[in-house]
Each structure stands twice: as structure tokens, then as C-alpha cells.
């Protein structure tokens, strides 16, 4: 199961919230009434904040006061706050880069304000070194779907698609691709295919196939942090397969933003030059850097427990949907590869979204916190994320919540 989302940066919205546009209020200065979609989005966010039980409550949906309070409370644990503030990437930013390089086992790392910038720079540097500006990737990879053709428009690169199937590419597809490419880019996990990962054996074969073609390998590891359970290897061993790795600080670690590019010291130094050219030499970044260090200290060690519990939740969801007599449903993957996965149901997206909000408003339990996307006539899907709040849910809790959701979804559908 998969879909093609609108282009644009959807990853700034946590917990699978792919809605685009405003914040649910009236258009500024124009006096126009809220659309039904805006009203539903505003209700969903209010319901999520008020709900007593959720599987995930992303920190990015908190208030400014809550975010600042966390920073003030946790920052002394991760860095010496008596040292001078950073200027253009020194101080605490350098400390964060060193921490990431140590975690990933690379020679160096460079902090970037966004992952989009980090990956464009990485792929541009590799194109210069290989002499080939062609990047082979999946049709559902982030640069292809969500970056407005930035690799070609901004960086002068050319992309070729190994496959569009909702799975990782195969080694045979890499070996048999009909034209040369300088870099193989692998998104681990591949979000738009359902947060799917290869097995460790498949990943090593993919990398070997690229090496046979004299191509370098870059990992889009925005969510690499939670991939260790499925791959069965530590972060440094996973990263060692690639020539360079990008990681995000906010998708799973609840940082304020930011990313890092890790790899050989020569590549990283060149990347820092391009970072400046791309406008990424930010004057001061200590709040974002502090939040990233807090995420590495607090959230990173907990991710394996989220992945393991997501498997329990996914199984209970399947059982609950079957017991509720839903005509067709799918949890994808059946056994989640990370702590995030997709749920596909035979409802229109607005029906499923309304049912999810109603359940939260009426019971204080919000099973599905993310937005719903159309997957075809009478079919929609959402993303489910399991974090610390979700660890409290038993399989019985999940099954009961599914039953309540289905009752409301059927009632909403009958009224349409």
C-alpha cells in the first residue's frame, strides 16, 4: 500500500500530520470563513491535546511554554550552560556534531538547519567526486515526493527511479538498472511505503550491488535511529555500510529541528562549505542544538521499546478490526519495522478523520491521532506512531478502542 503526497515539506508535522496549509483559523486579513477541513484539523489538534489516552503525543504539538520549560529543565543534563553561546557553528553545535559522529562511528559530522539542505549538499558533493550527477533512488523517496524537485532545480542533479513499488529496492534492481549513476540513495526506513526497511542481508546486498557499479551509497537516515531493532545491528554498524548518512533530530528525537550529515572528514568539510553557500551558516543555533542533545540523551534509548510495543499494537489493531467486522482492513507492514506504520480502512478519508475526532471528544481516548489520506475510492489510510504514551496500552485497550472507532466510523458513513 502506498500513495503519492503533495509536494512540499510534510515532515515538519509530527505524528503523521500531513495536512498542508493553515492552522485551522480564518485566512489572515481576508475575513473568510473556515473550511470544513480547517475546522476538522483544529478539532483534531484540540482533541489530541485534551485526550487522556493516546498512542503518541508528539512534542512539536506542545505550547511554546511547554517547549521552553523542557529545554530549561533538561538542558543542564546534556551540556555546560556556563560556556559561551555558539557563533556560526562553534561551541555547542560542534559538541553535537562530535556526539553524532561518535554514535554513527564516522570520522565527522556537520549540523544542518534542515535535512533537505543536508542531503542536497551530500549528493552534490558526491556528484563532484564521482563525476556523475545521477542519483538512483526510490520513486517514493523524500526528494522525489516532498522537495519540489530541489535536487534538479537547485543542485543540478538528475534522479532515476529504481522502483515505485511500496518496498525497498532490491539488489537485482540496482545491478540491472539500464544506465550509470554516481550515487545510490536509500531512505531507511522508507516512510511513504509504510516505514519499511530491508533486512540486514538485503541491505548489505544492496550496498554491494552499488559498489559493483562503482557508485557511492548515501543513507537518508532521517529515522535511522529506530531502525536498529529490525536490522538487528547497532547504529554504527548500520552507518558503516554507507559512504555518508543523514539523520534528523526532530522526527523521532523530539528536537526543535535540525539534521546532521555524517561521513568521512574530507566530505564533511566540503559539505560545510556548501552549507554556507546554501544559507545554512546560521548565526546562533543553541536552542536547536540543545534540544537535539536532549533527544539523544532521553529519547534515543527508548526507541527500541517503542518499536517492540508497536508490534503489539499492530497485532491488536488487526484483531480488533477483524472482530468489529470491518469489510477490509490492512495494517502495513503486518509486523512494523519501526514504531510507525500505516493503517488502511474502507472509509473515505473525511469519514475516518471525523470518527477519530469524535472518539476523542466523547471518550478521551484517541486511537488515531494523525490525518487521514485518500488511498482510492472508499479507501483511506493514516499513520500510527507508538511512543511513551502508547507503552501504557495493553492489547485489550487497543481492541476496545478499535471497536469504539468502528462504531463511530460506521455511524458517520451512514449519515453521508
UniProtKB/TrEMBL annotation:
GO biological process, one term: glycine biosynthetic process
Cofactor(s) the protein requires to work: pyridoxal 5'-phosphate
Pfam families: Beta_elim_lyase
Entry annotated with the keyword Metal-binding: no
Segments of skewed composition (Basic and acidic residues): 8-21
InterPro entries: ArAA_b-elim_lyase/Thr_aldolase, PyrdxlP-dep_Trfase, PyrdxlP-dep_Trfase_major, PyrdxlP-dep_Trfase_small
Superkingdom classification of source: Bacteria
Family to which the UniProt record says this protein belongs: Belongs to the threonine aldolase family.
Record-given protein name: Threonine aldolase
Organism of provenance: Streptomyces antibioticus
Amino acid at each position: 500500500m502506498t500513495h503519492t503526497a503533495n509536494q512540499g515539506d510534510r515532515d515538519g508535522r509530527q505524528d503523521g500530520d500531513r495536512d498542508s496549509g493553515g492552522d485551522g483559523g480564518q485566512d489572515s486579513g481576508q475575513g473568510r470563513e473556515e473550511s470544513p477541513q480547517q475546522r476538522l484539523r483544529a478539532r483534531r489538534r484540540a482533541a489530541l491535546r485534551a485526550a487522556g489516552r493516546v498512542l503518541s503525543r508528539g512534542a512539536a504539538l506542545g505550547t511554546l511554554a511547554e517547549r521552553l520549560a523542557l529545554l530549561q529543565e533538561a538542558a543542564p543534563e546534556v551540556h555546560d550552560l556556563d560556556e559561551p553561546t555558539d557563533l556560526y557553528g562553534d561551541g555547542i553545535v560542534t559538541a553535537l556534531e562530535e556526539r553524532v559522529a561518535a554514535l554513527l562511528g564516522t570520522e565527522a559530522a556537520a549540523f544542518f538547519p534542515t535535512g533537505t539542505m543536508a542531503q542536497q549538499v551530500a549528493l552534490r558533493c558526491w556528484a563532484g567526486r564521482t563525476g556523475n550527477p545521477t542519483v538512483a533512488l526510490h520513486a517514493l523517496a523524500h526528494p522525489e515526493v516532498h522537495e519540489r524537485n530541489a535536487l534538479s532545480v537547485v543542485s543540478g542533479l538528475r534522479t532515476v527511479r529504481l522502483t515505485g513499488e511500496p518496498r525497498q529496492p532490491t539488489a537485482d534492481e540496482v545491478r540491472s538498472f539500464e544506465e550509470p549513476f554516481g550515487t545510490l540513495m536509500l531512505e531507511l526506513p522508507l516512510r511513504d511505503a509504510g516505514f519499511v526497511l530491508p533486512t540486514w542481508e538485503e541491505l548489505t546486498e544492496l550496498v554491494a550491488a552499488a559498489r559493483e557499479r562503482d557508485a557511492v551509497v548515501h543513507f537518508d537516515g532521517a529515522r535511522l535511529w529506530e531502525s536498529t531493532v529490525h536490522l538487528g545491528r547497532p547504529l554504527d554498524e548500520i552507518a558503516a555500510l554507507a559512504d555518508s548518512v543523514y539523520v534528523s533530530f526532530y522526527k523521532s528525537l523530539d528536537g526543535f529541528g535540525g539534521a546532521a550529515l555524517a561521513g568521512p572528514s574530507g566530505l564533511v568539510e566540503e559539505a560545510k562549505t556548501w552549507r554556507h553557500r546554501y544559507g545554512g551558516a546560521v548565526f546562533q543555533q543553541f536552542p536547536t542544538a540543545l534540544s537535539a542533545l536532549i533527544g539523544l540523551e532521553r529519547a534515543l534509548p527508548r526507541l527500541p521499546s517503542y518499536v517492540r510495543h508497536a508490534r503489539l499494537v499492530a497485532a491488536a489493531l488487526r484483531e480488533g478490526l477483524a472482530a468489529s467486522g470491518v469489510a477490509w482492513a490492512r495494517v502495513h507492514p503486518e509486523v512494523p519495522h519501526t514504531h510507525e506504520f500505516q493503517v488502511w480502512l474502507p472509509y473515505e478519508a473525511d469519514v475516518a478523520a471525523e470518527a477519530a475526532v469524535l472518539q476523542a471528544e466523547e471518550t478521551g481516548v484517541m486511537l488515531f491521532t494523525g490525518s487521514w489520506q485518500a488511498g482510492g475510492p472508499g479507501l483511506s489510510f493514516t499513520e500510527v506512531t507508538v511512543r511513551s504514551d502508547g507503552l501504557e496500552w495493553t492489547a485489550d485497550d487497543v481492541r476496545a478502542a478499535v471497536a469504539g472507532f468502528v462504531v463511530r466510523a460506521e455511524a458517520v458513513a451512514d449519515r453521508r
